[in-house]
């Protein structure tokens, strides 16, 4: 339960720091840098950090792409016409039920893209969409299994997807965690050089 608590805390920090910009199209580099510093401090100092305890004293912080406003992209959200429940694989071979809520359509690096948004069956967070993805950096510059976005739910269909806050699953740091794997429909054929690196 404690492990879940820190995961929720990190997600909450992402949501709090980004929620004011999520639908406005504004980009705040100072806020992003402060968020990264706060997350690094938590990973280094918290007893519930995903960094193995033996490595925390030498932990110098996560590795990130430089902040880049071009990766805070306008996106149009289209809600699914019916609730479509899927089975999501995980890194530990246990299965998780998720509902495909809708799809974000956007353009990045001149390429039209789509990403499905999900909520987990029985999940506690109804205020954000879970948007996992892989891209052409996966396995090279970024974690091979992909990265995640938590997108605050809003009433308007016009969103901003800020890939600068894309983060690695905890299993990237510690194999004891079970992390959802990216569904094939969310494999992007473009390089997203923003957010956390491997």
Please describe what this structure looks like.
The protein is of the alpha+beta class. It has one domain. It is 21% helix and 29% strand. It is built from three helices and six strands. The protein has helices spanning 2-22, 29-45, 53-56, and strands at residues 72-88, 96-108, 111-120, 128-133, 147-152, 158-162. The strands form two sheets. It has a four-stranded antiparallel β-sheet with strand order 3-2-1-6, with no helix packed on it. Strands 4-5 form a two-stranded antiparallel ribbon. Helix 1 packs antiparallel against helix 2 (29-45). The chain is globular and about 50 Å long. The two termini are 26 Å apart. 28% of the residues are buried. Mean pLDDT is 87; it is low at 1-25.
Task: Indicate the low-confidence ranges by residue numbers.
Answer: 1-25
- Helix and strand content put the structural class at alpha+beta
The helix-strand sequence is: HHHEEEEEE
Strand proportion, as a percent range, falls in 25-35%
Mind summarizing the main beta sheet? 4 strands, antiparallel
Distance between the termini: 26 Å
Helix content: 10-25%
Q: Tally of extended strands?
A: 6
Number of helical elements = 3
Overall geometry: globular
Any idea what the radius of gyration is? 16 Å
Total domain count: 1
The strands making up the biggest β-sheet line up spatially as: 3-2-1-6
Mean pLDDT: 87
